[in-house]
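Possible regression after last week's pipeline update?

I re-ran a chain I had predicted before the update to compare outputs. Posting the input and the new output here so someone can diff against the archived version. Not blocking, just want to make sure nothing changed silently.
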Amino acid sequence: MNAKKQFSIALYFFFGISILGLILRLVPVYPLGINFSNFLHAHSHVAFLGWLHGGFISLISYIFLRKKLNTRYFRFIYLFTIFNIAGMYISFPIQGYKLFSIIFLSLFLISTYLFLSYFFKHKQDIDIYPATYKFTKAGLWLMFVSSLSPWSLVFILKMFGKESNFYKYDIFYYLHFQYNGWFLFAMIAITMYLLERRNIRLCHRQTKLIYGLLLIAVFFGYFSNTLWANPGIFYNILAFIGGFAEIAAILYLFRLLVKYRIYIKQPISDFSYRILKIILFSLMLKSVLQFVGSFQYYADLSYLIRDFIIGYLHLIMLGIFTPFLLIIAKELNFIELKSAHFYTFYFGFLITEAVIFFRATLLWFGVNFSAYIFNLILFIFTLLMFTGISLITSFKNKI
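New output (post-update):
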């Protein structure tokens, strides 16, 4: 079991969630008689755990566990993880958040704990890639922190019910510590690897500053997910600090990458370098949007108009993490990635983002519009995105 095979399997989960995404976009145009909520659960869980989690784990394993991926125990951990993700892909559309889906999710969480134990016991080359390891370690522990949410969900449902604020706090807690914690730290860790693999000794003070600011951002930033309940100005201040810290961290990261840009650019293709720059810009845009969300007016607005939240999450998942994983996998020779295939996917993503935010803006200003026309446009360009993903996952990327 090597890292390339791990990434290929994650890529197939990416294709799987694109099918679910296409179905979800078709339903408002042509009702299929399915339970929309159940399919949405499947789409979100497998997107986070099958594609993004799986993709980042494969890259981290490649860096720090390269010589320990063929042990019987690691193969068991990996196959156990894949089995549970596949179980969620099947069970969520059929029954939603009920017995079998909960069992598969619980077993998945146990598999991540087994991986954490294995990783910290068998990690290698941490002295060669110190900054990479620093961010990787933090990311993995934040993955553990996020995993506390599903365990508490049953208790919250029993004690307070699904309509309670505590239920929503718990859901947002999980999402936040996944994409602002585990995934973001993993992405920056791999970015550091691009430099350290060129034998560059990064300034400890600079990396420590970025690291510290991001930790402040992730813990304080969580409170931006509670503002919809109007908990009080103190929570706005905490969210403001978190948003400001993330912007500062990304600016310092940008400064670091500009300083060493020649060492990133030289060994990779012009296409990959161009996409990495777009990803960095998208990351700054994401940070600004989160900062703006610390102000109560915009927090209320985003909660009332769901498209703002959907657009924001898709920006992170499809505009930042997904392109990053694909580009790094290409440069590590995990996959062959044709620029035409990528741009087919990415153009579909950009148009759907524009449509989602435009529709949200019309709702904001109370402008009447045809919901059917917007849903039809979203479906058409989601179909284009699906086409790009199909090409990416099928083009000479067999296990």
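Follow-up from reviewer: compared with the archived run. DSSP finds 14 helices and no strands in the chain. Marking as no regression found.
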